[in-house]
Amino acid sequence: MIMEYEDDAIVIDCGVMFPDAEMLGVDLVIPDFSYVYERAEKVRGIVITHGHEDHIGALPYVLPKLQTPVYGTKLALGLIRARLEEHGLLGDADLREIQPLQELRLGAFQLKFFHVCHSIPNGVGIAITTPVGTVVHSGDYKFDQTPVDGIGPDFHTLGELGGRGVLAVFGDSTYADRPGYSDSEQVIYESFESVFAEASGRIIVSTFASLISRIQQVMEVSAEYGRMVAVVGRSMETNVPRAIDLGFLDPPDGVLIDKDDIDHVEPEELTIICTGSQGEPTSALARMANRDHRLIRIQPGDTVVLSSSPIPGNEELVNRTIDRLFRQGANVVYEKIKPVHVSGHGSQEELKLLLGMLRPEYVVPIHGEYRHLVHHARLAESVGIPADNVLIAENGDIIEFTSTSGRIVDKVPAGYVFVDGLGVGDVGAEVLRDRRRLAGDGILIAAITVDRRTGALIDEPDLISRGFLYEPESSDVLDRAKKLLGQTLESEASTEPDWTYLKSKVRNTLGRRLYAETRRRPMIISVVTEV
Amino acid sequence: MIMEYEDDAIVIDCGVMFPDAEMLGVDLVIPDFSYVYERAEKVRGIVITHGHEDHIGALPYVLPKLQTPVYGTKLALGLIRARLEEHGLLGDADLREIQPLQELRLGAFQLKFFHVCHSIPNGVGIAITTPVGTVVHSGDYKFDQTPVDGIGPDFHTLGELGGRGVLAVFGDSTYADRPGYSDSEQVIYESFESVFAEASGRIIVSTFASLISRIQQVMEVSAEYGRMVAVVGRSMETNVPRAIDLGFLDPPDGVLIDKDDIDHVEPEELTIICTGSQGEPTSALARMANRDHRLIRIQPGDTVVLSSSPIPGNEELVNRTIDRLFRQGANVVYEKIKPVHVSGHGSQEELKLLLGMLRPEYVVPIHGEYRHLVHHARLAESVGIPADNVLIAENGDIIEFTSTSGRIVDKVPAGYVFVDGLGVGDVGAEVLRDRRRLAGDGILIAAITVDRRTGALIDEPDLISRGFLYEPESSDVLDRAKKLLGQTLESEASTEPDWTYLKSKVRNTLGRRLYAETRRRPMIISVVTEV
């Protein structure tokens, strides 16, 4: 999101998206920043609301093309540093720490940060006062009255802003289709207490490495039940010491042990906190589920807790992990069985509460998929915002505000840029189309040698298939196709070979025959050698 | 599932599974029946509990190899006929109708069918009396006290069976992790009434084509609100007339209209029932969402109801469909927003109720994934079945019962057979591995021409890539790789070319270079022509 006023602009958050099932082979999806790059000289800074990947993950790809300061809270900057370091970009970055309640002037914009509760500590919303009015960006938030770190929602600032008058609210819509209030992190204690009271062996808790408050809770309950805690999994092993250093995680004295000492502790005195709550194939938990983890082998009596919700699209992976853990004799506790996870996003009543406190003239639902924006829009109308003042905007839409009006005035290109390995943007629609085709029916390569002058076939054609059919069993299908191709090409021999014609002949002949025999459409590539 | 006693055997149900995300390009998954085929002469019949695809869908693949009668209720046979007809197999099939409460002797087995409530009418469970005791197969069931067709659960037969003594229950576990009771189909009326009362334009209801009772409900509520009903989508247009013919669907007089007359009816007087509740890309609803349907274009004011739950793995497709419908201005009502769907499977209390009525000595949880079997096993233990008498079996496990014992004694191969197009079983682990590889990073074909005698390179190598990188933009990557390959092969020329060595040289040279430059690992195929 970019905000512009005359010669000044600020960017708010700079995240990644994870690829959906159709984005084959893609590692990450980042926004197309071309509109921002074209205005690079106007940009006074990138302001980060919190340290989740979907808010900071694109920085390593954007900063090299947009030299500007990055503003964030202590924890957010800590996580950004880690990301930039991995990309060897830390030296060049201008990172500036801000605090809740701090004010900051960036060109025409006067920013004030206020604390919000979310599934990572040290998150903020931002009130941005511009010459035409104040715009409030909610960040990701819920109204948790009893958060683990004791820092509740900043009702004071919100009330004050509302009293002074707010032009527009840009509000988190992720849970706009869920009625009521989201539960406080506090309810986790109860669920964990009951799990810990019942467990007789090791307890293995898997959660998001950024969910510091959850990690804190597991450590506290472990200490209470006389268990030591080991931390396992790459991002968990990175984040925990960092969060301790920065003061956001406070393990009870003596509770933490090294993961290499796991086997020296009695099962009933051990808790393991690990990555893998989304079933990610290379995570610690997935490795345990596959009996492929270097240190930990699941044994009957282990209790595994998935303290998370599957992110949409990950359900199959998560379910498979749960099944595999059960098969090895673990007792698996997951959200469906016990409330071992609560969301960090506010539900409908919280969204209304924010709007009620800020009483904005305009509402722009942000974050979440289209249906969530629609539900958020309906909530806004239900609390009295006129329908014309609720603006459902999608990526690329330009909203223009004056002190008396707000409307979507234009649309600029703002699609996705795919990151695959080291390539940023070299995988596009065409490459994905090919990958989908290859994934569906495989490939058939026809190697053909023809006489340079006569175009006559030299030797019979050779067919190589991959991902199409199992050759040892289906070689007759290919043999028949090869024979047909040979006959067709021989009858076609002419004085002057036309490669384009030849290739399309090969594709059509093979394609039709193989579809008739198999009802599959492998990609067909012909390699023609002229001699 | 096959049951054997000395020289007799029966098969219960014969279904398909739908491929998961890793089974690329696979259309259907059927069970490996080799164990059954080997005993074909013992098989006295295939007994079908109900007409869902996961219980009948493999018949067209199995019957040609296993000539035996198929027993099922009227509706199940009606649906089986449709399937067999599509495969041109109807002439050869021996289909025999059975009724609830009917008894049937098949070799050593005395079968008694009893009605169960499920999300398709005319479903049965089966009590199978064998020389060593009575085994009850639950079919798919819930205890719906107020079903739409008025035919409630057969408590009488269940009670009688329990009174006489049951050796083992094979019970549906699909919802074993859900507490309480599943809702009656009756609750759907209330939700639909409120949707119909609020809607001012057309109402489009998408559900499973086999969910006849839901279709009946939509028709009844439509009649009540003065709406005509059109049926759209291939399986819906097949099933509705068939269900009417067979007496399982009874549309109110004059409510049904032809889909081609849709445009002659006022929006507020029209309901459309269609396929696509799982977001299947070629379904009627997905086409509407993509503005690609021949007859129906979504317009603001339309209300779309998804009367279904996403089957795990389909969440992304369903969500995308919902978003697209919202984008076109429809109001979309789905399970999360309003209870417009209830499950056809019993929850924990119903599973306990069945066991309480039957009081079996042994329980074998069936249907559902592994975690559901575990939860069902726990429920069985909670109602007093000794843990040793609860047998969690997986595909291929052989359970041996005597009148006094039951245990898993052996395991036979019983994996999956993949159906892809016309091929049954020719797509196996290797083909899928190749497809995953191709899907992830694409393919690179290296065409190389060498001198037959000297092995010397003739011409520079040619590289063709698909699904790897976007060539017009990244041609320098390929140019560099081509040059490197040329140099490497030239330095390797020897008197006698060794193809295996040459191919591995090509693969290694290109693979290493491209991984270093792109961090991708396309499949590399070399096509070597000797001249």
Describe the fold and architecture.
Two copies of one chain form a homodimer. By secondary structure, the first copy, chain A, is of the alpha/beta class. Chain A is built from 15 helices and 25 strands. In chain A, the strands form six sheets. Chain A has a six-stranded mixed beta sheet. In chain A, strands 14-13-15-12-16-17 form a six-stranded parallel beta sheet, sandwiched between helices. In chain A, α5 packs across α11 and α14 (471-492) crosses α15 (499-518). The longest helix of chain A is centred in the last third of the chain and has 22 residues, at 471-492. The radius of gyration of chain A is 29 Å and the shape is globular. At the A-B interface, α10, α12, α13, β23 and β24 of A face α10, α12, α13, β23 and β24 of B.
Strand content of chain A: 15-25%
The share of residues in helices of chain A is 25-40%
Largest sheet of chain A: 6 strands, mixed
The greatest interface here is:
A-B, 64 and 65 residues
Quaternary organisation: homodimer
Average residue-wise pLDDT of chain A: 94
Distance between the termini of chain A: 58 Å
Structural class of chain A: alpha/beta
**Total of DSSP H or I helical runs spanning 4+ residues of chain A:** 15
Biggest sheet: strand arrangement of chain A: 7-8-9-10-11-18
Low-confidence stretches of chain A: none
Spatial extent as radius of gyration of chain A: 29 Å
Principal-axes geometry of chain A comes out as globular
Question: Count the strands of chain A?
Answer: 25
